[in-house]
Amino acid sequence: MHVNPFKPPIRGRDVVVYKKNKAVLIKQFVGWEGDALVLRQLNPARELKVPRDEVGDCHLIVGVNQDG
């Protein structure tokens, strides 16, 4: 998986979210809603809200190498 830490997240695109508690999420970026990062999970389908103060970084996924 390739991420670009310098590109802002784009709605509808996949992102890697690094939480301050060291957890990592790979989800679809929906946007910011007040003080929460809104993400979409595809299976099972649901929306997640992560409080802004729990988010360390959010990086756009720009490519995936599925060889091997």
Outline of the structure:
This protein has 68 residues and is mainly beta. Helices cover 0% and strands 62% of the residues.
Could you explain how this protein is built, in words?
By secondary structure, the chain is mainly beta. It has a single domain (2-63), classed as Roll (SH3 type barrels), CATH 2.30.30. It has no helices and six strands. It has strands spanning 2-4, 14-19, 24-33, 36-42, 45-51, 55-63. It has a six-stranded antiparallel sheet, with no helix packed on it. β3 (24-33) and β4 form a beta hairpin. The chain is globular and about 40 Å long. The two termini are 13 Å apart. The mean pLDDT is 96.
The CATH class is Mainly Beta
Main structural class: mainly beta
Q: Architecture in CATH?
A: Roll
| Individual helix count | 0
Categorize the overall geometry: globular
Characteristic terms for this protein:
68 residues; mainly beta; SH3 type barrels
List strands and helices in order, with pairings.
Layout: E1 2-4, E2 14-19, E3 24-33, E4 36-42, E5 45-51, E6 55-63
Antiparallel strand pairs: 1-6, 2-3, 2-6, 3-4, 4-5
